Amino acid sequence: MHPADNPLVSHPRKAGRLKVIWHKLKKAVEPLTDSALALVPIVLVIAFFQLLVLKQPIPNMGQMMWGLLQVLLGLALFVRGLQMALFPIGEEMAYNFVRKGNLWWLLVFAFALGFGTTVAEPALIAISEEAARIAAAGQVIASSAEAQSNYAIGLRLTVALAVGIALVVGVFRILKGWPVQYLILGGYFGVVIMTFFAPPEIVGIAYDSGGVTTSTVTVPLVTALGIGLAHTIHGRDPLIDGFGLIAFASLTPMIFVMAFGMLY
Amino acid sequence: MHFGATLLTMLRDVLPIAAILFGFQALVLRRKIKDPARVAMGMILVLLGLTLFLEGLEMALFPVGRLMAQQLTAPEFIYDSAAAAVGPVQWFDFLWIYAFAAAIGFATTVAEPALMAVAIKANQVSGGTITVRGLRYAVAFGVAVGVAVGAFRIVTGTPLHWFIISGYVVVIIQTISAPKLIIPLAFDSGGVTTSTVTVPLVAALGLGLAETIPGRSPILDGFGLIAFASLFPIIAVMGYAQIGDWRANRLKRRLEQ
Fold first, then answer.
1. Is A109 on the interface with B (CB under 8 A)?
2. A177, B72, B73, B147: which has the fewest Cβ within 10 Å?
3. CA–CA distance, B28 with A215 (Å, rounded to integer)
């Protein structure tokens, strides 16, 4: 008797072609369902407040559905591209720098990455122009357009410098294996002290500038760089030593912007 | 046409980054990138994905979200009539605003692409102990509390730094007692929460609120909400790890008895 015909042994049936296609389809749709799940809360919140609290109809349903479809697709593509390009590139460069063994070039790279990605950041441009308007209104600077634009550019360069230095310090910390909390808590202590000496108009902007510096493209890249370094260097743990770069990049702008406000 | 403009802005955003990466790769490291076709494809997907994402948000969610923030903070809605506030501002007149602040803070953070990237990486690195969804929800919960507290601060007019300083004191205490593995990740999550999705809606809320309440200046008090949205996730993520740790310990004690 052919073993396949033995009724006492159960054989797994070969998956049919339909099943294989179904499986592939499921794999292809998975990122889409993931991003759909990420969007459910925001749709619910807007529907709830619009329909039940403000008691108004949702305007332009068709346009809204079309927009949501774009958001969904965009998020799925982004996550896919992240895993194809930004993560591997960050980790590969970390590996190559460690192999090259030149500390100075690694630090120059860290600074360039921090400074270069921040100086052109649209959110930062918006916030520094706003800050210049406040400074002019508070008579910290002359209200001429030129003085305002100088102030805004000065602020932008300050924040970009802060992020560049943050990445240099952060990368150096990974190489040395220093615990992140001492540096961060020390930095926050500095923020608190400076809050009392900085002009009040700048404090809110300084606090907010810490949040706007890290863009959606920079974050995955910087994270992958840190984890790549921690992976490659002997004795570093990716979870303990690899994370923390973003934290530095959101901390130093607060200190630098308050210093800018005190000096200007 | 709009799509083209957004794509251009994104391109302008990404080009300096690409120039730095490839400049160093070619001139300093002098190594070829592994699988350049795949990397190029991935870059295009990132660019296209973010463009579609922003376009869609601008089309579907931002206008109605901004309008909502304005309507909820308008005196007509808060006081049931146009005849604005009589007497001092009462913080409990604004309950719907705190609810909206928390809800919109949570919902926008869950959809934040940068946070998703960090969560995916944390999941990989931790070998699955930290789940993508768990981290995102913890961070979103932190942002929700942060934005609600920030709205409350604008209403009461308490100085910003008192809240921020007491928040940092909590962070310091938690840092001493929380599991060491979570600390760097917790600090990082403070920085990634506030970008593409969260900032426009939260800023609209802060500005609207500061305009409505007498005695608040939009330029002075409108700022600061973002800072709250970056501080509270640190507390939430460490708290999430602490609760997990505490429950594991309790279980262990019970099993030993």
1. yes
2. A177
3. 25
Determine whether the interchain pair B49/A74 forms a contact, defined as Cβ–Cβ distance below 8 Å: yes
CA distance B220 to B216: 8
User: What ipTM does the predicted assembly reach?
Assistant: 0.86
Domain count, chain B: 2
Q: Judge whether A82 is closer than 8 Å to chain B, CB to CB.
A: yes
Contact assessment for residue A33 and residue B92, using Cβ atoms and an 8 Å cutoff: no
Find the CB nearest A247 among B12, B77, B191. B191
Instruction: Give residue limits of the domains in chain A.
Output: 1-59, 81-263
A100, A216, A248, best to mutate vs chain B, most B CBs in 10 Å:
A216
Q: Tens digit of pLDDT per residue, chain A (264 long)? A: 566 666 666 555 566 778 888 887 877 777 788 888 888 998 899 888 888 888 888 777 888 889 899 999 999 999 999 999 999 999 999 999 988 888 899 999 999 999 988 887 777 887 788 788 877 877 777 778 888 889 989 999 999 999 999 999 999 999 998 988 889 888 888 888 888 888 877 887 887 787 677 778 888 999 999 999 999 988 898 888 999 999 999 889 999 999 998 887
Within-domain flag for B110: yes
B17 with A123: Cβ contact below 8 A: no
Q: Shortest CB distance from A185 goes to which of B172, B191, B229?
A: B172
Interface residue A239 vs chain B (CB under 8 A): yes
Global confidence as pTM = 0.86
Q: Which of B65, B85, B89 is nearest to B75 (CA)?
A: B85
Taking the C-alpha atoms of residue A188 and residue B241, their distance in angstroms, rounded to an integer, is: 22
